[in-house]
Design goal:
The protein has about 425 residues and is of the alpha/beta class. It folds into 2 domains: about 210 residues, Rossmann fold (3-Layer(aba) Sandwich); about 160 residues, Glycogen Phosphorylase B (Rossmann fold), CATH 3.40.50. The protein has 16 helices and 13 strands. The strands form 2 sheets. Strands 3-2-1-4-5-6-7 form a 7-stranded parallel β-sheet, sandwiched between helices. The chain has a 6-stranded parallel β-sheet with strand order 10-9-8-11-12-13, sandwiched between helices. Strand 1, helix 1 and strand 2 form a beta-alpha-beta unit. The protein starts with a strand and ends in a 37-residue tail after the last helix. The C terminus is likely disordered.
Length: about 425
């Protein structure tokens, strides 16, 4: 099976990281990755892994015609069975060119919010895509149930839809091993410091102001004994808005800004608590990576965060510094005074990812959705019997890796199991799937 992936960029972002994990996972699928932009953060990693990688190097309207012509040549030369696109810009471009090339297209959705945190271009593309969802894509894959539900009302419900939760490398993201040193010495922190981390790019959706205001409240109750590590693109001294806010809140002696890092796995297992303060999320990678590292999390009740952390962490309302500070304080006291309870949370966090959100399960989820798309495709040029033969010969592989389970009732706000997930290893039908009973 040959799949061409089209993505807007390979910058240091969540959807980009998911793509990298998917195409580098062991699989019989032959992948080609095409980035609309120039070489960026993940380009080197993909090239080093031997992935068939191309950049259209689109830098503005003037280069758009040449980029489209090159993409069409890449599609024709590769002769993919299917195009998997990632996020709005790539979705629309893939939809149009897939229709021209008579190749099925599967759109990828990794967002739950159409409000002001999104750029105007992204909001416009999201709604235009909704108008075209009934005829451009053969299927839509969402990374979370809430992402699917958020897009349904603007037209996406007209396409068959599947939820495939993100998967994570539990070998790379793991707890500290006996005798392994953490990074406290590198950060010039005493060994007994309670270290909080927040890994997030600088963007209004990530709401760093919410976190910093919560930490200012925390400082009033805990004058010492803790520090917070901030990690992500533009999270450094070159960001004047961030540095001004840190100074205004009097947190200079409590915050360490590391910027973008490639050793996030080491950071996650070196800290005591990870905090996600976002105003909007879908299925955040950093929370699952922290949990896989055995690090409990405090998260805002956005996207599927509450379902993800379950009873291993704390869930608070978004844009609310006081509840966020209270949850961090509770985590601090638990970690410092109740070792048994803290160790149980750490084990629970790790087990939740290891049991339900591995790369193998994500890979199976995508491949199963692709298989169903090819079987139900109405494109006459496709060799349908050959596709079915490949799909059903691989059925035992799919049954060996049931898709991720997201249990109900883990979040105060969500009380139902997301569409597209299934329990007990038994498949549940994708919405609108013609092959579903």
């Amino acid at each position: 099976m040959k799949v061409l992936h089209l993505i807007g960029s390979l910058e240091n972002g969540g959807a980009e990281a998911v793509l990298v994990r998917l195409v580098t996972a062991p699989s019989d699928v032959q992948h080609r990755v095409v980035s609309i932009g120039p070489a960026e953060w993940y380009s080197e990693e993909l090239a080093a892994a031997g992935v068939d990688l191309h950049h259209l190097d689109l830098r503005g309207p003037a280069s758009f015609p040449a980029a489209v012509r090159r993409l069409k040549r890449l599609i024709d030369a590769f002769e993919p069975d299917l195009i998997q696109s990632w996020m709005y810009r790539a979705n629309m471009l893939a939809g149009v060119l897939g229709m021209i090339a008579r190749v099925p297209v599967v759109w990828g959705i990794h967002c739950t919010n159409f409000g002001r945190p999104l750029r105007l271009r992204s909001r416009t593309l999201a709604r235009l895509s909704g108008l075209a969802a009934g005829w451009l894509p053969s299927r839509v894959i969402s990374c979370s149930a809430l992402a699917q539900e958020a897009h349904d009302p603007i037209g996406y419900r007209r396409a068959p839809s599947t939820v495939v939760a993100n998967g994570y490398d539990i070998g790379r993201f793991r707890p500290l091993e006996p005798g392994e040193q953490d990074l406290r010495a590198d950060w010039q922190l005493p060994a007994d410091t309670f270290v909080i981390a927040a890994v997030a790019r600088w963007h209004p959706e990530k709401d760093h102001a919410n976190l910093l205001n919560a930490l200012a409240l925390l400082r009033d109750q805990l004058p010492s004994g803790w520090a917070c590590i901030l990690v992500g693109p533009d999270i450094d001294a070159s960001n004047p808005v961030l540095t001004r806010l840190i100074r205004k809140l009097g947190l200079e002696d409590r915050i360490i800004c590391l910027g973008a890092r490639r050793d996030v796995d080491r950071i996650m297992r070196s800290v005591d608590l990870h905090v996600l303060s976002s105003a909007s999320e879908a299925f955040p990678n950093v929370v699952a990576e922290a949990m896989a590292s055995g690090t409990p999390c405090v998260v805002t009740d956005t996207g599927d965060c509450g379902l993800l952390v379950g009873a291993s962490g704390w869930v608070v309302p978004p844009r609310s510094p006081q509840p966020l500070a209270a949850a961090i304080l509770d985590a601090y006291h638990t970690g410092k005074s109740d070792t048994a309870a803290w160790d149980e949370r750490r084990k629970m966090a790790r087990a939740r990812i290891a049991e339900s959100f591995t790369i193998a399960r994500m890979s199976v989820g995508y491949e199963e959705a692709w298989r169903e798309t090819l079987i139900t495709s109405n494109l006459p040029a496709r060799e349908r019997e050959g596709i079915k033969g490949w799909a059903f010969a691989s059925r035992d592989r799919y049954e060996a890796h049931p898709r991720p389970i997201m249990t109900a009732g883990s979040s105060p706000r969500r009380t139902k199991e997301p569409s597209g997930s299934h329990a007990g290893g038994e498949k549940s039908a994708s919405r609108n799937d013609p092959a579903s009973p």
